[in-house]
Amino acid sequence: MNFDKIIVIGSGVSGLTTALTLQLLGYETVIYTDKEAGQISDKNAHPEFASLFPAASVIPHSFYSDQLKELFRTSQSFFYELRKRFFSGLSIHRHFEIFEFEQDEPEYRNWMLDFHPVMELSPQEIPRRSCSQNLYGWAFNCIFADWPRYFPALTACYKQSGGHINRRTVRTEDLPTLPADILVNCSGTGSLELFDDPLDEQLVMRGHLLHKPGAPLIIGAGGNIISYNYTPKASVYSDPSGEACDVYCYPREDGWMLGGSRETGYLSSPTTEFSKKNAESYQIGGLAIPSAIIDINKDILETTYHQSLRPSDELYPFIGYRYVRNKEEGLRLDHETMYGKTVYHNYGHGGAGATLSWGCALDLASRITSKNKPRLQELLLEEFEHIL
Ligand SMILES: Cc1cc2nc3c(=O)[nH]c(=O)nc-3n(C[C@H](O)[C@H](O)[C@H](O)COP(=O)(O)OP(=O)(O)OC[C@H]3O[C@@H](n4cnc5c(N)ncnc54)[C@H](O)[C@@H]3O)c2cc1C
Question: How far is Cα 72 from Cα 110, in angstroms, rounded to an integer?
Answer without folding.
Answer: 12
